[in-house]
Amino acid sequence: MIFGYPALWLHLLTILMLGMLGGMLITAIVVRLLMSRFPGYSLATRHNLLWLFALFPLIAGGTAVVLSFMPEWFPASDSWLAGIIHWHHAYLFSPTSWHGVFLALSLLSIFAVLAVGAWRVWVQSCKYSLLTSLSESREGGFAELDADVPMAFVAGLLSPKAFITRGLSSSISEQERLIISLHEQAHIARHDPLWKNLFTLLVGAYPSPVRRFLQAELELVQEQRADEWVLRRYPNPSAIAQSLLNVEKLAARFRQQQPCRASCHFAAHAVQRRIMHLLGPADHRSLSVVVVGVVVVVAALCSAASVDLVHHFLETLFLH
């Protein structure tokens, strides 16, 4: 049995994990409901929603912690909040109780996710070092690789670099080379591989269909934002779209495994949607910040309430 402030901190961790679990379930439901409508939203809306989905479990967990212990920290709030959400025996924690078992399993799961993420970063670092050693600097800021597969991509986390293969470099025009160079510069300026890895870590515990959808949509959003970067510096959407098609045609002949998971590839993600974004009318829907804020607050409160309900249900189940 653990007493005092150590017990309090362990309870806080338990509530945090329960809140995050509730937040994940709520987010997974919302994502499944929005999957078919997601392409219709504007680029900025999709970008913000994706990061909100990734961060909401942390928001929900933090809300659950604050609300569960607010009556303990601020007795004046007891008159209204303690009747809704409350946590008994805050300074008494039993490692052999369901609290202890759930907390241990949660911490092991988080450790596993972090370990996989660290291993992925290490592998990417090794691949990046190998790519750098095998490449030669070329004009346009590219490092050229002696490979037949036509590919241009950005690799590296803290100091990303643009790579292009000889198979692509020798098969494109100067105009296409300029467009591809600008595209990869956009990924470098935004540190997209780093943000992609962080996003992957945040959504790592989601159910597989939801996780794959969120990761694919983030990759597409990063590509479309890079396309817009190019368009601002080379205002010829038809030429950019044609370059996408030409590179995709070349790459279709050399389909193979991506050389680096921490990379952003030119013309590698949902080419049709990227071309429609470049050439189509800008009539995408957007969401009101107020509406999104209200939904987030309600969802966080629901998650906190579910933590209290689960807690008291299990307490009743095991003690009576």
Layout: helices, strands, pairs:
Elements: E1 2-3, H1 4-34, H2 43-73, E2 92-93, H3 98-134, E3 136-137, E4 142-145, E5 152-155, E6 161-165, H4 166-169, H5 174-190, H6 192-202, H7 208-233, H8 237-252, E7 263-265, H9 271-279, H10 289-319
Parallel strand pairs: 4-6
Antiparallel strand pairs: 1-2, 3-4, 5-6, 5-7
Helix pairs in contact: 1-2, 1-3, 1-10, 2-7, 2-10, 5-7, 6-7, 8-9
Word description of this protein:
With 320 residues, the chain is of the alpha+beta class. The two termini are 20 Å apart. The chain has helices at residues 4-34, 43-73, 98-134, 166-169, 174-190, 192-202, 208-233, 237-252, 271-279, 289-319, and strands at residues 2-3, 92-93, 136-137, 142-145, 152-155, 161-165, 263-265. Mean pLDDT is 81; it is low at 259-263. A 5-stranded mixed beta sheet has the order 3-4-6-5-7, with helices on both faces. It is elongated and about 70 Å long. Strand 5 (152-155) and strand 6 (161-165) form a beta hairpin. The longest helix is centred in the middle third of the chain and has 37 residues, at 98-134.
Strand order within the widest beta sheet = 3-4-6-5-7
The coarse silhouette is: elongated
Number of strands: 7
Distance between the termini: 20 Å
User: What is the CA-based Rg, rounded?
Assistant: 24 Å
Low-pLDDT ranges:
259-263
Largest sheet: 5 strands, mixed
What is the succession of H and E elements? EHHEHEEEEHHHHHEHH
